[in-house]
Amino acid sequence: MNDGDQAASFLYLIGILVLVGSALMVRRIPLGQGLKMFAGWVLIFLAAFVAFTLKDDFMALGKRVLAEGRGQGEVVAAGKELRIRKSMDGHFWVNGELNGKSVRFLVDSGATVTSISTGTAALAGIEPGGFPTIVQTANGVVQVRRARARRLKVGTIERRDVAVHVAEAFGETNVLGMNFLSSLSAWGVEGQWLVLKP
Fold first, then answer.
1. DSSP-based three-state secondary structure for 109
2. In angstroms, rounded to a whole number, what is the distance separating the alpha carbons of residues 91 and 39?
3. What is the pLDDT of residues 45-97, one digit of tens each?
4. List of domains in the chain
């Protein structure tokens, strides 16, 4: 909203308050009671004015709260650069695609290899092979199977033939690891945003 619109809205509010005040005076209401009623109307109109003025901000906040409730980090593509807003839990979460299937990832620079649950592997048609391997994770030692994803896409950034670890121990959490992050030209945290550059 520009300054002209705000000024017009403010003048309209003043006009309504003058109208309410004059209506109270015509009814010859006692001064104390009239002041209370007038103050109540002032508060009502001020609240309406603030809500109208900041409606776009309230809508953006509502969308963010809904996205957070669904566990989705806000993702913004600025040119080729991808910006992921930090979630309320302090982590960076992003919805990506694994072999064309929608998958939610926790971005974790502490994970050497992108790691997925057995359920996600089955969904994406990824068959783990070879002998199990032991890896150290933030939650302790985990036995994983190695595999490769044909395609891993996050926003506009796509990588092919990506190594992944598959384990039932990961539960519902899928981790986007350093093997993806190190394939980027640059990445880093800027305030509340994780910035990924292809």
1. coil
2. 45
3. 788 878 778 777 777 666 666 655 554 556 666 667 899 999 888 899 999 99
4. 3-53 (no CATH), 71-197 (2.40.70.10)
